[in-house]
Design a protein that fits this description.
Length: 146
């Protein structure tokens, strides 16, 4: 598993923990930074992802809700919601990573951590987000989204 894969997985853990413990994302992140327990300290990219999600959660949730026809965010499995937020942030705000790689990583996480149908659901939602971007504007692989 690459360093970015591990960082994405750790970011997913923070988002999932916040959801399950009903903490704000900022509280969950600060807790993980201060008390990593048996795990190693959070990678810088994990912190960047979580802080990015915190700063743009409304934008991300709007894009996810718009791309997941018929599925309200609160009806999605918490792990799927966290995966989608991490990947949508990366698509919109990290031009260094190709969109296809982000989607592939998210689908892999969904396949290993969530329901049987989650991988195809995550793939479809992120494919739509990648095509339409925030506000319905097309996004090309590696394009920064303002």
């Amino acid at each position: 598993m690459s360093a970015r894969n591990k960082a994405r997985k750790r970011a997913l853990d923070v988002l999932f923990e916040a959801d399950q413990r009903r903490l704000s994302l900022a509280e969950a992140l600060e807790s993980r930074i201060a008390f990593s327990g048996a795990e190693t300290a959070l990678p810088e990219y994990t912190i960047e992802i979580v802080r990015g999600v915190i700063e743009s959660v409304s934008e991300l949730d709007e894009a996810i809700a718009g791309a997941s026809e018929g599925w309200a965010l609160d009806r999605m499995p918490a792990v799927d919601r966290a995966i989608l937020r991490v990947a949508a942030w990366e698509i919109f705000h990290n031009a260094e990573i190709e969109v296809a790689i982000t989607i592939d990583e998210a689908v892999g996480l969904a396949a290993s951590l969530s329901t049987e149908a989650s991988a195809s659901f995550v793939n479809g939602v992120l494919g739509t987000i990648a095509r339409t971007g925030p506000g319905g504007h097309a996004v090309s692989a590696g394009d920064p989204v303002e």
